[in-house]
Amino acid sequence: MNHSHSKALFARAQERIPGGVNSPVRAFRGVGGDPVFFREATGAWMTDVDGNRYVDLVGSWGPLILGHAYPPIVEALIEAARRGTTYGAPAPGEVELAELLCATVPSVEKVRLVSSGTEATVAAIRLARGFTGRDFILKFEGCFHGAGDPFLVKAGSGVETLGLPDSPGVPAALAKLTLTAPYNDLEAVERLFAEKGKEIACAIIEPVVGNMGVLVPKPGYLQGLQELCRKHGVLFVLDEVMTGFRLARGGAQELFGLKPDLSTFAKVVGGGMPLGAYGGRRDIMSKIAPEGPVYQSGTLSGNPVAVAAGLACLKALAAPGTYARLEQLGAMLEQGLKAEAQAAGVPVTLNRVGSMLTLFFCDTPVYDYASAKKADTARFGRFFHAMLNEGVYLPPSQFEAAFVSLAIGEAEVAHILAAARKAFRSLA
Ligand code: PMP
Prior knowledge:
Elements: H1 4-16, E1 38-42, E2 45-48, E3 53-56, H2 71-82, H3 92-104, E4 110-114, H4 117-132, E5 136-140, H5 157-162, H6 172-175, E6 178-181, H7 186-196, E7 200-205, H8 221-232, E8 235-239, H9 251-256, E9 262-265, E10 276-280, H10 282-285, H11 304-317, H12 322-344, E11 349-353, E12 356-360, H13 369-372, H14 377-389, E13 392-393, E14 402-403, H15 410-427
Parallel strand pairs: 3-13, 5-6, 5-7, 7-8, 8-9
Antiparallel strand pairs: 1-2, 2-3, 4-10, 9-10, 11-12, 12-14
The structure holds 4'-deoxy-4'-aminopyridoxal-5'-phosphate.
4'-deoxy-4'-aminopyridoxal-5'-phosphate (PMP) binds next to helix 4.
């Protein structure tokens, strides 16, 4: 596969953009080699600047559950743009999207729109602190909640790939207010809460983790965490930036029967445009300015073009059979990938919930940060490049989730599995 135009662009980009990219994991540091630059994408397929085509299993890291350039979304946002790209004043679409969000996710009684997942999580933490009057927060090792200062402590995702457990620039005084516990370990939380529970504003968690690769919660783990939080007056914050509207219409909270105090959303809710949201209990959300004293704002918050895309996306997902189809596609890939790995004699652990999956290159179960770290990242890198060469675009890191979209059909599944057969053989 020829990548000469990508290489030339990357050389130019590195002169003017740190690392040549506008978000670290795009730089392929986790897999080696140079990133591919894309010129267009429709449905399940992306075309790079050299004309190579790939089935996309990244979906822009989650938003593109309907595939690229999904016509009803494109039409909705063009139509909205014609009426003006931003007003900096309220508009009807925001009310409609807020109502739809609350109707779809029953724990959300009031919601505030923002422009990214990071904004949503940062605002949710401030609100939890403001509401409880407590300063500490609890997060889970390897979970990623965006690039906000309070979260760059034992964070997964790009931080993990780069091997930066903390970031310079995050004051130690702030970082020490972020407590961490291993994912899938309730006893650790119990011990921590017994000691410090009264000082902890909230626990924030990825219900199904995507940012160490996919980790599945053990049966009862999330419910147990919710109970422990209630017992200690700690707000239970579910970060549904990846899982919201993806694992079920009502997100992971619907799937696992949870009722978080606050939830954060982005990715799917914006239909591929910059849009995030945080919401939850009415009494808590009423503390947000101007109704209450906890400040949060944004010039482009509730942007009419982003809102139009989000509404079109959520309406399309309401079609019957959506989540059954995503589950079916995920299951086909899971079974096929496992079979190809086994046939080639390559040990793998495949974690999947619905349309989120990760193939770990190790033969031991992966359920927390420590077990994820056992994966052979060099081997993943070779697999990644073999797949790329066969026209499949996987997340360029062992510690990221692959996302299946509804644009993937039987032909794309066959294409992915044929590529995997060659890729696994090349490793054996
Ligand atoms: N929370 C989770 C669970 C995420 O996966 C991400 C991004 N991958 C974020 C928050 C941050 O979202 P954004 O990149 O839109 O700021």
